[in-house]
Amino acid sequence: MGHRCRFFAPNRWANLRAGRPAATRALRPPEYHGQTDMSFVNTNTAQAFADLRGAHYTFPRAQKLREGFEWMLTDYWSKALLGRRFEARGLLVTGPSRTGKSAEIEHLLAKVNDGETAMPDGRPAKIVSVMLAGTMTWKDLGVHTLREGLHLPTRGKMTQTEIWDMVGFQARAQGVHGIHYDECQHIFPRKSVEGRAMILDSFKSLLKNPDWPLMLVLSGVDELVGHIASEEQLAYLLRPVQFHEIGLQRPEDQQELNSLCFAYADKAGVDFSGLSSLDFFRRLACACGNRWGLAIEPLIDACVAARNSADMALTSEHFCRAFTARTALAPGYSPFSIEKFEPLFKGEKMFELWENKRAAAQR
């Protein structure tokens, strides 16, 4: 498949600073022991998927996000310690869909909420997460925050002010110091200039609440940057963290994709070195629509297929089968099997294909 540019086999897993054996112990989920009459479950395959899906690969961007969380929490802690009124800070995490924003934030929130970070009020740090699903009003978001973030169903008719007053009261009562709003761009479409200004000012009021200021993590696609930038004071209080697509014109992305493939292959116990070339990375990037989050899915499928077949090494055929099984394209029709694949497979079209399949599966 063209000229092969070899790469080294790196080792970068989350919590794997002590080497590969320690990493394997840290990431292995509970193993299945014994056999029951589950004719529809291949327990060996299920265990292989669980091993790989349960692992967390540490991208360089994760360190930047962690630094943002540390900055936000340190700022909050130092101000709360003084016992005076203060304004909290937050993060603005943006990038194209399926680049791993939600997964990285979720991973860090689990660490923040593990009880190890004590706050000046004597309670452990706690940041809840709320997913915005479709267009909603500020009142709708308040109801959604109570139900999903604070687990408090609303009853009867309440005004917008009453709802958000309850959010602040319950956050303080439950020891919630911050809220992550995912897919935050959904609060803005089809809003008038005045409506958008009101929403931006309302987010700012959560950071500046005199009784219980809340840290905010707002995440979404790149258009969210433009909305936030239109409110200068809010933009000042939010530290930006940018996620990007796979860009193989950048040498660091070539090495990162190589590192990702080796890490999963090593965990599956198969050899990736035969595919470690820029030509293959172009094919993989194309197949996943240049999205880091999507690249992991066919990679896991290929690793499990190789392991189930007792193959010692990954091949293009493993990836081809994984790709066509996921996308429902004809067997053998993939960027991994066609020599001149670029005219037939466009990155953005591949992303749309993945998203359409995902949407169909959720119906």
From TrEMBL:
Taxonomically, the superkingdom here is Bacteria
User: Where is each ORC1/DEAH AAA+ ATPase domain found?
Assistant: 86-224
Q: Name one Pfam family in it.
A: AAA_22
Source species of the chain: Paenirhodobacter populi
Q: What is this protein called?
A: ORC1/DEAH AAA+ ATPase domain-containing protein
Extract the GO molecular function terms from the UniProt entry.
Answer: ATP hydrolysis activity
InterPro entries, alphabetized: AAA_22
